[in-house]
Every structure is written in C-alpha cells, then in structure tokens.
Amino acid sequence: MNASAIRRDPEYWYDAESFIPKRFDGSSIDYKGTDFEYIPFGAGRRMCPGIAFGMANVELPLANLLYHFNWQLPSGKQPENVDMTEAFGATMGKKNDLYLIAIPFTPSLS
C-alpha cells in the first residue's frame, strides 16, 4: 500500500499539501480501526508500537485524579470567569494557568 499516495489523495484530503489540523475536528474515523486515511501517520504493521502504552499513560493517571479527588476553583473564582484562551507554541497550552483545589474524595459506605 502506497502511504505517500494516500497522503495526497484528494478523495481523503482536501488541499493535502497544507497543514490544516482543523480537518480532523469532528472526524468519525478511528485511528485504531481499519480506516486507511490514517496510514500516513502510521497504521497496520508499521504503526507506532507504543501508541497503546502512550494512551494508557495519559488516560489512567487522569482517570485516577478525577476519581480520587473533588475539584473546585479557589475561593472567589467563578467558572464563567476562568480564562480559557490558548497560547500557540510547539505544543498547545493555555495562556494563563488553571489553578484548582484538590479535595480528597472518600466514598461513603451507606
């Protein structure tokens, strides 16, 4: 299978030579499935062997944090006043840091 040809196929990619990350917004294509559109990014036999490990190392700690703590904003802060402006760089991040208070969660046995 010619990954280079798929990467440039107008059937799958409008303006394939341009960097347009928004083209993936709302996509129903699953990178783990049999969709050949993602072959240029690594799929099949040549797919990154660590992708499942990497995903688990992001999802599991996040799930543990969400399960074991209740989260609230510092006193005086309202959710509608939190600045969610993005800052552009090598990676995407928030322009201003988000500060939260973690309160340990203990499930009741009632």
UniProtKB/TrEMBL annotation:
Signal peptide: none annotated. Its cofactor is heme. Heme binds at C48. It comes from the Eukaryota. Pfam families: p450. The keyword Cell membrane does not apply. One of its GO terms (molecular function) is monooxygenase activity. It is a single-pass membrane protein. It is found in: Membrane. Transmembrane segments: none annotated. InterPro entries: CYP450_71D, Cyt_P450, Cyt_P450_CS, Cyt_P450_E_grp-I, Cyt_P450_sf. Keywords: Heme, Iron, Membrane, Metal-binding, Monooxygenase, Oxidoreductase, Transmembrane, Transmembrane helix. Belongs to the cytochrome P450 family. This is Uncharacterized protein.
